[in-house]
Amino acid sequence: MKAKWILAALVTLTLTAIAGIAVLKRSASSVSPELIATQTFQVRGQIRELNPEQKFIRIAHEEIPDYMPAMTMPLPVKDVALFKGLNAGDSVQFELSVTEEDSWISHIQKIAPDNPLAIGNLPPHDDGRTSQTERVLPGEYFPDFELLDQDGKVIRLSDYRGKAVVLTFIYTRCPLPNFCPLMSKNFADLEQRLSKQFPGRYQLLSVTMDPEFDRPAVLKQYAAFYNANTKHWSFATGDSAQIQFVAELSGLTYAWENGVISHDLRTLLIGPDGRLAQVWKSNVWTPYEIQRAIADLFSPEKNRESAFARQ
Fold this sequence. Notes:
Number of domains: 2
Order of helices and strands: HHEEEEEEEEHEHEHEEEEHH
Strand content: 25-35%
Helix content: 25-40%
């Protein structure tokens, strides 16, 4: 009898342990991988611009130790409720959440100017908008420009007349995953889509904002990292004046701050006729969206409209 009791107890303990392991496994599997891999940083800064429509807050922030120097950046906001009660010029304490593929403000609150947490050394209040070149508007011809590609070859926008050109801006040392790395990741996806639907009828162009570092050899390595077919996806550099010219035409804002480039985002679609067709001013566009826009450009109706406009 005693042996049976011991055996029953052992069976009960074993089943309990197995059930416990199963619960732990279910609990672990229910946790989002993004949550597990998310880093959070507590940061202080001052609001420069609020943009609820495009869901970003442009903030001049202090150094984030071991991650980013003091700079001004348009940081994404997923919860629009966070905009409530905030104004440009407010000093704030915010939480920046970062994963391998994304970053966003997950919490933000105002702090008083005389608060012990008040802001100290911030980047200068310079939004980089010193453009002397008039920005091109949709429907207008995009002026020709000259740059160097990843092979050191001179390229011009006019080289791609007759093709749909998708142009974006990156720099290879960009630290935020949903800025330059996301643009390049989306272009890699877009390249696959367009190669199937419009082979030989499109050109992707990634223009660096860091021409001193991003020379052709660096861009060639960067292109290889994204498995780019450089026959129809070029990575372009030049001197500072050449890059600034293209940036100003595109309405891009960028400036060096403490060794890192503070910048916003611009992705442009230039039609086969050389006219600017569409501009995306944030990182929320999808490869499918641009694929559809290019399909519209190549539609018979659009071609008839273009022919009529040239008459």
